Amino acid sequence: MDVSIDISKTGIETGRLILRAWQENDLNDFYEYASVPGVGEMAGWEHHKSVDVSRGILQSFMLAKDEFAIVYKENSKVIGSLGLHKSWANEDPDYADLRLKDIGYVLARAYWGQGLMVEAVKAVIEFCFHELGLEALTSGHEGSNNQSKRVIEKCGFRYVKTSEYYYEQFGLLTYSERYILLKP
User: Fold this and answer.
1) SS3 (DSSP) at 69
2) pTM for this model (two decimals)
3) For the domain that residue 71 is a member of, what is the CATH number?
4) Which pLDDT tens digit goes with each residue over 126-144?
5) Spatial CA neighbour of 62 closest among 24, 97, 35, 32
6) What letter does residue 37 receive in the DSSP assignment?
7) Cα 155–Cα 35–Cα 113 angle in degrees, nearest 5
8) Per the structure, how many domains does the chain have?
């Protein structure tokens, strides 16, 4: 079952990262990584073609209160985002009675391959199970996104199924690998 959350006053700190609510002054960092071709596309959205696109999405993040900005401590830059959204499992009879959310994420290309997203996701898993009282988390990746697959598997998610998915922005029918992690 979908649950309402509000992370606007939440801060999570790891060894290298701070996860916090988005702020208006994050716009330049957001646009910097979101405008790079291939970054958004790995997460299922088109890279930002203008700072105005980033501004609009940033405003939606701040209103929804379900998306963390990922700040790299070493340089205090926002290098990605991690959201807690409505899950595909809400419609699955095997999981529909569980309090759950879906984790989705994106990371600036310059920071790929350093284990940062695994670090962020593990911290958010802990937060979701212990602070929000969730019973399960889901995640997924577009079939060919092996980087996301590795993050999901390293964080302990279990493969459930493959589903067709239509990317409206790209006019493309593809498939998505779906995973779940039950609270221990």
Assistant:
1) strand
2) 0.93
3) 3.40.630.30
4) 999 999 999 999 999 987 8
5) 24
6) T
7) 30
8) 1
